[in-house]
Design a protein that fits this description.
Layout (H helix, E strand, L loop, with lengths): L1 H20 L1 H26 L4 E2 L2 E2 H34 L3 H5 L5 H5 L9 H18 L7 H23 L8 H12 L11 H6 L11 H7 L7 H26 L6
Antiparallel strand pairs: 1-2
Length: 261
């Protein structure tokens, strides 16, 4: 376990140094991320200036959802997004060889190589939105904030597993980057409450492509609008993803052709 922490701490320190070296790039990315949050906020503000609620989601509940979604997305983007962008290249160019020789799990190392600290401002904004709209949305506050942390971590894990599921096919595809980027076409389903979608899509984003776990399901549970089965569903779906990806990863390593092959 100490070996894991030593390696991950080294990665963290190296990325901190890189951010300080390329400060202008970090500032530009931070501004771009802030603009994204403003656009998301303005989108719902315009909608709810013309309508009271959408399929059971009122203005405050939707912004509460948005705060959870932004926070979860910010954590994932900070720690994993850059590494997943480069994941297909590790396989196609044979660079995975180096990671396979390290004393920690290659999958962990491959997805935690490059960090993006510009997104931390979005994490702060996400928590601000949660706090600002929480009471009006039906959130209890107080010790219920532990529930916020729990669900944001669930969103982080969900996004990690789904992103991995789209990247892992690079072992078998010459153009694995195409499938990897396909993830973001579906990701658009995550940044709106599930009530905005027809029944078939709502089922899809709670099972096969569980984007609802990033914001919709947490918001429903934390504002006491759930049916009591949401937590069981989340753990069932995520457990399936873990088992499936573990199996596919092992098969992929057998298929992998190293740079020296």
């Amino acid at each position: 376990m100490r070996t894991y922490w030593d390696v991950l701490l080294t990665i963290f320190k190296n990325n901190i140094v890189r951010e300080f070296i390329y400060r202008s790039n970090t500032i530009a990315l931070t501004v771009a991320d802030l603009i994204w949050v403003v656009v998301e906020y303005a989108f719902f503000e315009v909608i709810y200036s013309n309508i009271g609620s959408i399929n059971g989601w009122n203005r405050e509940q939707t912004f509460f959802f948005l705060g959870i979604f932004i926070s979860s997305d910010a954590l994932f983007t900070t720690f994993f997004q850059r590494s997943f962008w480069n994941f297909p290249y590790l396989i196609s160019q044979g660079d995975l060889d180096v990671l396979l020789t390290k004393p920690i799990n290659a999958a962990v190392l491959a997805t935690f190589k490059e960090l993006n600290f510009s997104q931390l401002i979005n994490l702060v904004l996400g928590f601000y939105i949660i706090n600002h709209y929480g009471t009006a949305a039906g959130f209890d506050g107080g010790t219920a904030w532990f529930g916020i942390v729990f669900w944001i971590i669930i969103g982080l894990i969900t996004q990690y597993l789904m992103r991995f599921a789209f990247c892992i096919w690079s072992f078998w595809l010459d153009r694995g980057l195409t499938v990897s980027r396909l993830y973001y076409q579906f990701y658009a389903l995550a940044n709106k409450p599930d009530g905005l979608y027809p029944t078939a899509v709502r089922v899809l984003i709670k099972t096969a492509l569980p984007f609802a776990f990033l914001g919709s399901v947490p918001a429903v549970v934390l504002t006491h609008r759930g049916n009591g089965w949401e937590v069981a569903l989340v753990f069932t779906v995520l457990a399936f993803y873990v088992l499936f990806l573990t199996f596919i990863w092992k098969r992929g390593l057998r298929k992998y052709q190293s740079a020296s092959s």
